């Protein structure tokens, strides 16, 4: 698996910002045809997919090559040491560790309960969504006339959070009926 370095991620993010600005300018230009707009939308989509598919950064140390594995120390202690900064920030999920280091991700998933992982500082996607929803406040339904690819990154995140809220509401209604 090829890892993308931090500087490459920042470069992709800057490219995405430039494309967003160019797309906004194109929207106000009546002389441009639909082919140009569709090409810009496709380019935005490709950059967004590259950002989404890329792991954040190369792992500092792999579990399979570590001295701690050879010495028989617990993998959770290794993960706490290697990913200490992200664990302190409260932004690391076991799934993210699995994308960076497949062997460590498998060991964490198979050998530790979710409660042990939460006690170590790992967060779940639900926990991260709860924090984002609390910060976002009241969300409005995203406009249906806009394609997802035509939205800015902030609008996409707001639409995603609205979708999370809507799914949770539907599940709660379904449970209430049963």
What is the fold's blueprint, element by element?
Blueprint: H1 6-27, H2 34-53, H3 67-71, H4 75-82, H5 84-89, H6 94-100, H7 102-111, H8 114-120, H9 125-136, H10 153-177
List the keywords.
flat; 178 residues; single chain
What is the rounded Rg?
A: 21 Å
Q: How much helical structure, as a percent, in the residues?
A: 55-70%
Number of beta-strand segments: 0
Secondary structure category: mainly alpha
Number of helices: 10
Distance between the termini: 45 Å
Share of β-strand residues: under 5%
Mean pLDDT, all residues:
82
Overall tally of domains: 3
Categorize the overall geometry.
flat
Q: What series of H and E elements makes up the topology?
A: HHHHHHHHHH
Uncertain residue ranges: none
The largest sheet, given as strand count, sense and whether it forms a barrel, is: none
How does this structure look, described?
The protein contains 10 helices and no strands. The protein is mainly α and 178 residues long. The chain has 3 domains: 1-56; 63-123, no CATH class; 124-178, no CATH class.
